[in-house]
Amino acid sequence: MPEPAGRITMNKPGTEFPEIDSLLESFREHLYSDMDRADALNERAFELSQKNNYDAGAATALHNKGLVHLNKGEFPEAVSFFSRSIELKEKIRDMAGIIASNINLGIVFYHLRQFEKSLAFSTEALELARKEKYRQLEMKTLANIAMVHGETGNIETALDHYLLTLTIAGQLGETRTAALLKDNLGVLYRMKGEYEKALAYHRESLKEKKVFRDYPNIARSMGNIATVFLQQKKFREAITWFKKALKVSLDIDAKDITKMLYNNIAECYARMKKFDQAYRYKLYYDEFHESVMSDASRQQVAEIEAKYQAQKKEREIEKLRSALKEKEDIINTILKKNERVMLPESFSSLSKKEIETLSYVSRGMTDKEISAGMNVSVNTVKTFLRRVFSKLSVNNRTELVALIHRYDFSAEAGKKN
Questions:
Q1: Closest CA to 242 of 355, 342, 100, 174
Q2: pLDDT in tens, 103-143
Q3: What is d(CA 89, CA 56) in angstroms, rounded to the nearest whole number?
Q4: Using CA atoms, how far apart are residues 409 and 403, in angstroms rounded to an integer?
Q5: Which end of the chain has less Cβ packing within 10 Å, N or C?
Q6: Based on C-alpha coordinates, what's the Rg of the chain?
């Protein structure tokens, strides 16, 4: 399922109070790199705005505070600050600001899984954006609405909204955004089983990303193409595309992508019953995982690759085959011993904490509820979820929930937990 649309940050309101405007601009620069620093800058901007009766600055600072709480997973607080921001923006007739805060309220309620409220705020934002002719905000709002419909299983409606978003992106010359949207459309068509359409969108996306040399997303598009072939059980084609993606990810030292691709290739070889190759790539995955955990350099990855390339000799292959019997649990996990569509990441690779997180997700619990159940922070829960998404090769919670029910992982998680 496509990722949520980017959260909206307000543009600095003006130049009447340059010190305040500078603080607000600095907040934007630090929000995702140093949140504590960004929060402190924003608090100072809010204090100065109140002291100088600068409503535009205060409204922006309130909006920013909502973003901080949203990023921390503190959703009730985020709702409070976005709502207060809207009150001030209505007073000064800041329509773009009102739209932005409504968009972010839609995202908050999406995370709270209150989808009707999420759609209500997003729809209000969409109506205002169209009335005021803010095409950029209209595009972002449509993407959010598509996301909610996808999350609730309304794939056709999600597709309609993403296609409309893509049209607007084209009209605005937003080529980069269009490339990402095409990948999202490909994912949705793959979920529908319309593989030719899925491949067409992924290939268009890949072509456009190559123009911008967006290498991380180039690797992801190649991986998406491979996943389409994998779901069709066209394993040779899947391996070809996974290896193309692997080459790109190694070149740019994208550790998370590389680790996932090693495991994907192992899965394909196992399905083809080429156990020596499957075991070899599983070893790549295991050793690379260890190197990532110890913050190893890209040179270490190259050494792993070189080491196992030498094992192509018949003597080494035979040695791996004899060792395969001792590694039946790895191969059994890869094969799943049934006719399900193979997942790009084996369920057995999940840690105890990740399985516990999966168990909570299967019960429909929010990140905050999971946080309370596991006695960890919301950010830690999000970290567990990101790892689960990567290992099970899903794009967000909707695909994860569908996967749980499709493969009865809720029962498996209960056994392992």
A1: 342
A2: 999 999 999 999 999 999 999 999 999 999 999 999 999 99
A3: 7
A4: 7
A5: C
A6: 24
Please write the tens of the pLDDT for every residue from 317-368. 566 555 555 544 544 544 444 444 444 445 667 777 888 888 888 777 888 8
Side chain identity at 234, as an amino acid letter? Answer: K
Nearest CA to 118 among 129, 130, 132, 108?
108
The whole model's pTM is what?
0.61
Report the mean per-residue pLDDT for the chain: 81
46 CB-near residues (< 8 Å, 6+ apart):
57, 58, 61, 62, 65
Non-local CB neighbours of 340 within 8 Å, separated by 6+ positions: 406, 407
**C-alpha to C-alpha distance for 385 and 314, rounded to whole angstroms:** 41
DSSP string for residues in 166-205: HHHHHHTT-HHHHHHHHHHHHHHHHHHT-HHHHHHHHHHH
Measure the CA angle with vertex 156, ends 153 and 158; round to 5°.
70
DSSP letter at 10 equals P
User: Using CB atoms within 10 A of its CB, is residue 396 exposed (0-12), middle (13-18) or buried (19+)?
Assistant: middle
